[in-house]
Amino acid sequence: MSVEAKAGWNLDRLDHWSEPVEFEVTQERIMQYAAATNDEHPAHRSGELAPPVFAIVPAFQALAQTAVGIVPPELFMRVVHGEQDFRYHRPILPEQVLTTTAAPVGVHGASTGVVVISKGRTTSSDGELVVEQYMTSFFRGAQLDVHEGEPVTEHKFDEPLRGHEPLASIEHRYDSDQTRRYSEAAGDPMPIHLDDELAKSMGLPGIIVHGLCTMAFCSRAVIQTACPDDPTRLKRLAARFSKIVQPHETVTHALYEARHSGEARRIAFETTTDTGKVAIKDGLAEIANA
Predict the structure, then answer these.
(1) What are the two backbone dihedrals, phi and then psi, of residue 150, each rounded to the nearest 5 degrees?
(2) For residue 196, what are the CA distances in angstroms to 157, 179, 190?
(3) H/E element holding 204?
């Protein structure tokens, strides 16, 4: 690939880890996130235990900076969330001081854009690993014929599962102010979730729901189905954001028993909208045995 074709792309930043970003967890911040995602689990609503997708909050700044550090500035506003993969090692609790470092670990050109994969590691004040996560950002319309670094993590839906009855089918609706509340709770100010006219100027039909808000809805369905008595048994949560969702749509999560292993139960899931779209594909949850 020519130097000209790579102009503006900072591929030399691959595998360069960021400076640590510190975040203090408070009970109020956990409660705000639970409320913003309509989470009804008592431990989450009371702020005693962070919901699973809250793990993005202390890591968002570091992860976002590593992703945009790779791409030319004119592409920043073309980004949509592609995939997210959380690996939970310890629960996130009030009064913890967490530190996150992140690095871009993969860049892959596609026919309709460019995928940038970032990895984050969040640790506690005693240095113990709390959460590892991979965030995949997709820059729509970007062009780069390159495949460098790590691939997207593997969590593909097992197609034969469609021949089985789902474990559960759970419906969730968004509130009219869902994107504003989620933006504030998550610290994600992207205007495509808040400004209808700007979203339309970016080629979208209007304000769209944060992919991670829908993923938080998925986590509610997983916990309700598989580990309501102990949400900390959820050890991995991964999903691909397939289609955009708007606040007026209703989503339904279909959960399937994938398989058991010696250490964890695996649940596959998909999320569809009442307008016929598959919003979440390749969903995977791993639940530690009780």
Answers:
(1) -70, 150
(2) 33, 11, 12
(3) none
Answer whether residue 3 shows pLDDT above 60.
Answer: no
Residues belonging to the chain:
290
Tell me which residue of 199, 183, 141, 172 sits closest to 271, measured CA to CA: 172
11-288, superfamily in CATH?
Answer: Hotdog Thioesterase (3.10.129.10)
Residues 6 or more apart whose Cβ sits within 8 Å of residue 81: 135, 136, 137, 138, 210, 211, 212, 241
pLDDT tens-digit series, residues 196-214? 999 999 888 999 999 999 9
pLDDT tops 50 at residue 68: yes
List the chain domain ranges.
11-288
pTM of the model: 0.94
pLDDT at 1: 41
The Cα–Cα gap between 226 and 235 comes to: 12
- Rounded Cα–Cα distance for residues 136 and 39 (Å): 25
Cβ atoms of residues 58 and 122 within 8 Å: yes
CA end-to-end span of the chain: 52
